[in-house]
Amino acid sequence: MSTSPTPALPNSRTEPDGSAVVRVLSYNIRSMRDDVDALARVISACAPDLVLIQEAPRFFRWRKKLARLARATDLVMLSGGGSAAGPALLCSLRATVERTEDVLLPLTPGLHRRGFATAVVRFGGARLGVLSCHLSLQSQERYEQSGMLLDQLAGMGVPHAVAGGDLNDRPDGRSFRRLADGLRDCWATAPWGGEQTSTPTDPHQRIDGIFATEGIEILGCGVPLGHAGVTDDDLRTATDHLPVLAALRVPPVSPS
């Protein structure tokens, strides 16, 4: 992995017109089975307003473990975890939480249960739907879940939304393409930092991503290689995926 400096993404801020620049991080944390201190340093250095987690702790004392990570990164638990079969959301105190919902997807016998962690939040005058996902390893189930993700966002009743996660699919795969056709692939729209997300020791494929609806301005998105405070050692030891960081400008809610 490159250690050369990466130009900084825009900082979080609220604009005079009520729009908001929001930093979104998507990260598969492998149930916090690796170096949790390194994981916390990576997340903190990215200064996210929202963290879309996959493989959050799901079993014994999972809330306590996720709360520990939230405290270590100066964030708060928003939704998900065991109650969403792995996906979870953390947020900064900048977010005003409107509602949350944990969604369990249909269970295919012999395969892992999957789910979505979702929320609607406000930043200044901007209102944003948020969804974290971890799609199936099985091709047909993954394709069906990608359609469920699009349906879930469409049913949230918000004009703007962001979704991210571990897709278990590459950009040329049909599930990835289905999401990119219905939403905007943030990396493809405004590439920044690194592209490949798996694995930290041998980055060779992009199977994690962040997607946004029309109307959201994508200011930059990618793996935060060389980002201030993010070291190669921490990226290698924190978990078995690389994170994806995006800066988005979300328009304000239109007056009714």
From TrEMBL:
Record has Chaperone as a keyword: no
Gene Ontology molecular functions: endonuclease activity
Keywords: DNA damage, DNA repair, Endonuclease, Hydrolase, Magnesium, Metal-binding, Nuclease
SUPFAM superfamilies xref list: DNase I-like (SSF56219)
Taxonomic superkingdom: Bacteria
Domain Endonuclease/exonuclease/phosphatase: residue ranges: 25-241
Cofactors required: Mn(2+); Mg(2+)
Gene3D superfamilies, sorted: Endonuclease/exonuclease/phosphatase
InterPro entries xrefs: Endo/exonu/phosph_ase_sf, Endo/exonuclease/phosphatase, TDP2-like
Keyword DNA repair part of the UniProt annotation: yes
Family matches, as PANTHER family: TRAF AND TNF RECEPTOR-ASSOCIATED PROTEIN, TYROSYL-DNA PHOSPHODIESTERASE 2
Protein name: Endonuclease/exonuclease/phosphatase family protein
Species, as recorded: Streptomyces flavofungini
